[in-house]
Design brief:
Blueprint: E1 2-4, E2 8-10, H1 25-46, H2 55-79, H3 88-107
Antiparallel strand pairs: 1-2
Helix pairs in contact: 1-2, 1-3, 2-3
Length: about 110
């Protein structure tokens, strides 16, 4: 028990946390994750082409997607809060960037 003030005791102190998630969540979720998902899906679509006949197109497509991801990173910096730790959007960005580099390597 905690002795607080004059003769008041709290036997079971507790803290209540609340997160207001539903007010802005859909708009921010769409504006942050949807472009990353679209770029990654275009990369996955590039794996459907014939590697021998469309090599130049595939390399150009995956290079453009890497450039789009890097450019979107600058947009993402303005949308996310300035904190000292990586946010979930940062983790998604790095996940999509690593997978895009893997697809680029496969297409080359």
């Amino acid at each position: 028990s905690l002795g607080i003030g004059r003769g008041k005791e709290i036997m079971y102190p507790s803290v209540l946390f609340a997160i207001d998630f539903f007010h802005h969540s859909v708009r921010y979720l769409i504006s942050v994750l949807l472009p990353l998902l679209i770029i990654f899906l275009i990369d996955l679509f590039s794996l459907c082409f014939d590697q021998k006949e469309e090599r130049g197109t595939l390399v150009t497509m995956t290079t453009a997607n890497i450039a789009a991801l890097v450019a979107y990173r600058f947009v993402l910096e303005s949308l996310t809060p300035k904190v000292g730790y990586p946010t979930i959007a940062d983790y998604f960005f790095f996940l999509f960037l690593c997978n895009t580099f893997i697809i680029f390597t496969v297409n080359c």
